[in-house]
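[job 4471] stage=fold_predict status=RUNNING
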Amino acid sequence: MASCVNSTLNNLLASYKKWIVANPQLLTDIEATVRCLSYFSFGQLRNSTLAVELIYSMPNLIVLCNDLLMYSSRRQHLKIPQFDSKIKIWLTVVEYTETLLEVSAKKLWGPKGKWLMIVVIQLFKSVLRLLLIHVYKERVTKSPATPPLNREKFNKVIDSVQLREGFMLKRSGTVVRSIRHSVPVDIRTWKALPPVTDENENLAKNQESERNLKLAESLYVTKPLLHLGCMYITNQKHWPPWILSLIIDIASLNIFTRYARRELFSKDEEEELVRRRLSLLLYILRSPFYDKYSRNKINSLLDTISTSVPLAKYLTSAVKKNLPYMQSMYFYMWSR
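[job 4471] inference complete, writing structure tokens
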């Protein structure tokens, strides 16, 4: 009986894999619809935080599972490090569900259980990210650690690799043609090698850059723990934790900016650094700055938009109604 059930499940899984590989755009549209439904349910279920967080987490987990299934069906053609790394997959799952886990802990064990869960989650995430930095030599850890797969591009790359019999570079994702398909020797352009430089000097510079980049990323990764420690000493509504987190973010980005000219960052790394710079704007939505300065300003701006822009009243009223909940649930300093 058990073997029959397993066989049926394996057949269903194989059929589903074939379907998602054959219909990547339709799959993306379905996932986007599910995500939109979760946003619409936010206003209806605002009084049930557990239901809200469960519905909000599910679309992200569904996308991750479909990406993993799609990749596993084509992994013989190319490898993508983010899917081969179990550490990154676990990090992504925790990032998608951490608020749900916090809310569940509060429901079961009260405020103390919530804060214990927060400490455990942030410690878990920081340890795994430090492993990625110092053991697996990752310079910039992304958030989420396993970003959603571009299905259409993924299929095109596979077709290109199969056609050209090439391979993909792990860091940049660039497809490189096999040497068997390179230009014939008699028509190649042969250029002189660059002048020889002092290898010891270059090695010293590279080691210095590597140490500083590791320091910058380690600072950023351990920021949640430092923030929680400072908050334990002072208070969540006081200024020291807010200031400490802002200083760490700026210091980390400053080091990356200083070495950006020397180091060649991949497209994914550059996008993550841009995301971190933009995320500095979220400090206006974090306590105590939000409570003392930005809350009244944002509400006034929403009122102005609702009276001056046609049909904007429905959107601004929804934002104004849900902003207090979102601010209290999602704009912690340790959120990435």
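[job 4471] summary: Residues 211 and 295 are 40 Å apart (CA to CA).
[job 4471] exit 0
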